[in-house]
C-alpha cells in the first residue's frame, strides 16, 4: 500500500518535474520514509489525544526518534510492521507507569546498550561515513545522559526501547 502510493507519487513528481538529478527510485525510497513517519506520528498523536496523553505521546515519538537518528537500530523489512510496531510503542509507553528508581535503571541499561552496540545498522540506511560512527556513539550517550537532569519517565522508557533495537544478534 505505502510502496505503491510512494511509487505513484514519485512517478507523478518525476513527470511534473524537469529536474533529472533525482531518480524515481531514490524519490520513491524517500517518500516511503516520509509516508511511514507521517502515518506513525498522525495515528499516534490521534490515539494520544483520545487517551488524554497527547503530550506524552509526542514526547515519546520525539525522544525515540532523536536517539534513533544518531544511534541507528533494527529495521523491519515490512513498512506495515514498522508502522504498527512504532505506533504501538508510541501510544503504549505513556500509559506504563514506572517507579522513580526505575528511571535510573532504564537509563543505565540504555547507556550500557549504547556503549556496546551504537551505532547499529546505520550502514546502508544512511550516508554517514564510518569515520563519524564514534561521534554518533558519543552523541547517543550525551542524549541519554541528559535525562539524568530531567529524570523524565517518558524519556527513560523511550530511550530504553530504542536502545534495545541496537542489539544485533549477527555481531
Automatic annotation (TrEMBL):
<keyword id="KW-0673">Quorum sensing</keyword>
<dbReference type="GO" id="GO:0006508">
    <property type="term" value="P:proteolysis"/>
</dbReference>
<dbReference type="InterPro" id="IPR006741">
    <property type="entry name" value="AgrB"/>
</dbReference>
<feature type="transmembrane region" description="Helical">
    <location>
        <begin position="138"/>
        <end position="161"/>
    </location>
</feature>
<keyword id="KW-1133">Transmembrane helix</keyword>
<dbReference type="GO" id="GO:0009372">
    <property type="term" value="P:quorum sensing"/>
</dbReference>
<feature type="transmembrane region" description="Helical">
    <location>
        <begin position="29"/>
        <end position="48"/>
    </location>
</feature>
<feature type="transmembrane region" description="Helical">
    <location>
        <begin position="54"/>
        <end position="71"/>
    </location>
</feature>
<keyword id="KW-0645">Protease</keyword>
<keyword id="KW-0812">Transmembrane</keyword>
<feature type="transmembrane region" description="Helical">
    <location>
        <begin position="102"/>
        <end position="118"/>
    </location>
</feature>
<dbReference type="Pfam" id="PF04647">
    <property type="entry name" value="AgrB"/>
</dbReference>
<keyword id="KW-0472">Membrane</keyword>
<dbReference type="GO" id="GO:0016020">
    <property type="term" value="C:membrane"/>
</dbReference>
<keyword id="KW-0378">Hydrolase</keyword>
<keyword id="KW-1003">Cell membrane</keyword>
<protein>
    <submittedName>
        <fullName>Accessory gene regulator B family protein</fullName>
    </submittedName>
</protein>
<dbReference type="GO" id="GO:0008233">
    <property type="term" value="F:peptidase activity"/>
</dbReference>
Amino acid at each position: 500500500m505505502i510502496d505503491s502510493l510512494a511509487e505513484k507519487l514519485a512517478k507523478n513528481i518525476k513527470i511534473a518535474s524537469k529536474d533529472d538529478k533525482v531518480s524515481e527510485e531514490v524519490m520513491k525510497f524517500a517518500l516511503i520514509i516520509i509516508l511511514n513517519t507521517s502515518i506513525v506520528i498522525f495515528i499516534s498523536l490521534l490515539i494520544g489525544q483520545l487517551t488524554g496523553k497527547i503530550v506524552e505521546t509526542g514526547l515519546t515519538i520525539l525522544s525515540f526518534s532523536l536517539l534513533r537518528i544518531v544511534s541507528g537500530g533494527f529495521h523491519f523489512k515490512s513498512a506495515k510492521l514498522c508502522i504498527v510496531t512504532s505506533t504501538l510503542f508510541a501510544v503504549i509507553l505513556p500509559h506504563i507507569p514506572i517507579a522513580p528508581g526505575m528511571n535510573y535503571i532504564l537509563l543505565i541499561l540504555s547507556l550500557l546498550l549504547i556503549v556496546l552496540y551504537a551505532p547499529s545498522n546505520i550502514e546502508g540506511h544512511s550516508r554517514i561515513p564510518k569515520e563519524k560512527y564514534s561521534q554518533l556513539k558519543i552523541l547517543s550517550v550525551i542524549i541519554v545522559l541528559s535525562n539524568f537532569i530531567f529524570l523524565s519517565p517518558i524519556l527513560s522508557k523511550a530511550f530504553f526501547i530504542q536502545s534495545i533495537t541496537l542489539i544485533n544478534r549477527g555481531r
